[in-house]
What we know:
Layout: E1 5-12, E2 17-22, E3 25-30, E4 44-48, E5 51-56, H1 58-69, H2 73-83
Antiparallel strand pairs: 1-2, 1-4, 2-3, 4-5
Amino acid sequence: MCLGIPGEIVALHDDDLATVSVSGVEREVSIGLLADEGVDLGDWVLVHVGFALAKIDAHEADLTLEQVKKLGQPWTDELDAYKQTAIR
């Protein structure tokens, strides 16, 4: 399964990377696609295959996470896979 997952930016790095937290799991993702918009600590982004694709507001992030958690085992599997991947 492939999902766009809301993540909160918890650290910014010099090389178009940021650390995002998704349900407590942190990993680095590329924020290069959002260079024109800019991102700051605490912003929420939609993450897909290691890239932040769009900024979203906290309410939308909460609603989306609430729904994907209802998937049960597929969500758990996705989160487990997310823990084990990195773009570097």
